[in-house]
What we know:
With 468 residues, the protein is of the alpha/beta class. The protein has 14 helices and 23 strands.
Amino acid sequence: MVVGEVAESLDLLVIGGGPGGYAAALHGARLGRTVTLIEKEHLGGVCLNVGCIPSKALLEVADAAALPGRVAGWGVAATTSIDMAQVQSHLQQIVSDLTGGVAQLLSQAGVQLISGTARFSRPNRVAVEHGDSLSHFEFADVIVATGSRPIDLPDLPVDGQRVVGSTELLFSSKLPENLVLVGGGYIGVELATAFAKLGSHVTIVEAEKQLLTGFDKRVAGLVARGLEKLGVALLLNHRAQKLESEGLLVAGPKGSVALPADKICVVVGRRPNSDTVGLREAGVLINSQGLVDVDAQRRAADHIFVIGDLTEGPALAHKATAEAEVAAEVACGGAEVFDPTVIPMIVFSDPQVLSVGVDPSQAKKQGLESFRFPFAASGRARTMGDSEGFVTVVADDAGTVVGVHAVGSHVAELAGEAVLAIEMAAAVEDLARTIHAHPTLGESIMEAALGLAGRPVHVSRVSKNEKS
């Protein structure tokens, strides 16, 4: 490595080691490029280190902690207790195992890793700062995957102690007695689910009139009901004002109230890290939301590709990973485009939410048919002891599946079949006539398709649009 103004030449450079970045590096290496990956913190990015993985692990812990209440009616008497130090050790071990696996994959692929913060100084050149050292690199092609960061509230600054972000809350060594989550999106809902089950008194403050803005209202309503069953207080159409000695002051239609809180977690959304890497200096166009303008091949400028949370669309790890392959292929001379029919959305709440394609509300407006199969009629849901929720399949006028939506226990595991059906333009009959194993939740998709086809088995026949 040359230190100073003289730049070292690189072949394919990847900036950012999250799910998009490390996947792009692996694809680039597979395609024969000499790949260098620059990461300023930890391989795996937000998702593996402080986001998707530890939060889902905590939800599993919370489910286990809440087991006595779930099985009390089954003739099983159980008790549980929480050791937060052991819980944190468990989460850290999972993160360590997975990020270690990523490091091993990159090593085996021959990807060179550089630790530091990269910033464009020219369209084909970056400066990388690491401690007191500054290095310069020129590249043939670059894939930028620097992700996003939490949005701050000016009147409620995160201090890392009482007012925290999701990372500090996830890795807190002490269970808060009174936790207020500012933000009722999927992160806030998942954290509320976990900490309520662990034993905290939880309140969600959400500025909109419903949780999970953007999701179907019926689904959001069921999630709200599930949270209330866990004892979570919901203050919808309320805004956090400021922190006072009595607690967090929030304002709503009927006035203001101070919420007691020993921990306040701000989870009001994320913003792209397009401003931290100097993309404008590279000639890249960035819109007012901080999103980078890319073409269907994820190209932002000649030899510059941008993926993940930096681009339009949901800020989800699986979107970034899919874009990574497209960008790497194109950088290596391929002609691929990123043109998914759908990107699945999942909320790991209780009940869980799966949203793929046209939802029932949209279907109704468009005059499309849908059928809702209730889990109350599902043998598998009954055996799991949780039969609340449903699966809805939406079809267009030609009978092609265009939407699958579900709310209920473990419905996240239905995402693969739902997405595949829509991507393959499956007909309702394809789902209805596919033999599904019994008893499984997957049968519910088949049952909804059978209903849509006019021959429901485990529910009564009903009129069309919406059938249920």
